[in-house]
Write a structure and sequence with these properties.
It is built from 6 helices and 5 strands, in the order E-H-H-E-H-E-H-E-E-H-H. Helix 2 runs parallel beside helix 5 and helix 3 runs parallel beside helix 4. The longest helix has 17 residues. The chain starts with a strand and ends with a helix. 32% of the residues are buried. The mean pLDDT is 96. The structure holds 1,3,4-trihydroxy-5-OXO-cyclohexanecarboxylic acid (DQA). The site of 1,3,4-trihydroxy-5-OXO-cyclohexanecarboxylic acid has 10 residues, from loops.
Length: 153
Amino acid sequence: MKFLILNGPNLNLLGIREPDVYGRETYQDLEKLVADTCRQENIAFRCFQSNHEGDLVDQIQQALGDCDGIVINPAAYTHTSVALLDAVKAVSLPTVEVHISDVASREDFRQISYIRAACIATISGEGLSGYAHAIRLLKAHLLSNNLPEEKTL
Ligand code: DQA
């Protein structure tokens, strides 16, 4: 099993960026948490962060045939990007949306998520540990979907 872990704009500045909202842990801490979780769960992974929408679309497209699922924090593109929604729909890979902060309790403009329509779940407000939650949830989803039919009854 292999996952693409995708992070959008400004998440490279974790630790520096609005620490009261996003905490003091850095993007490197996030990569370590992802690596530790994937090792424990026996999942191969590829981690990618970009500030550019098209690069994120390219990564989603490249996951086709390479990855079994996607964990994505589209950051600000959550609230603006039909291109990311279309990319996830196009590859049709199970995808979990993650937000470090609790977006539901923030500004009105953060209440729209385009990508949510293509995701199996959204995890929000759990800090960096939300990524570990997302990885485990995605693994459980894939395992339950791959059970032989008699075992799903
Ligand atoms: C975020 C929430 C978004 O609204 C914001 O634009 C981000 C980060 C989060 O992880 O809480 O950049 O996705």
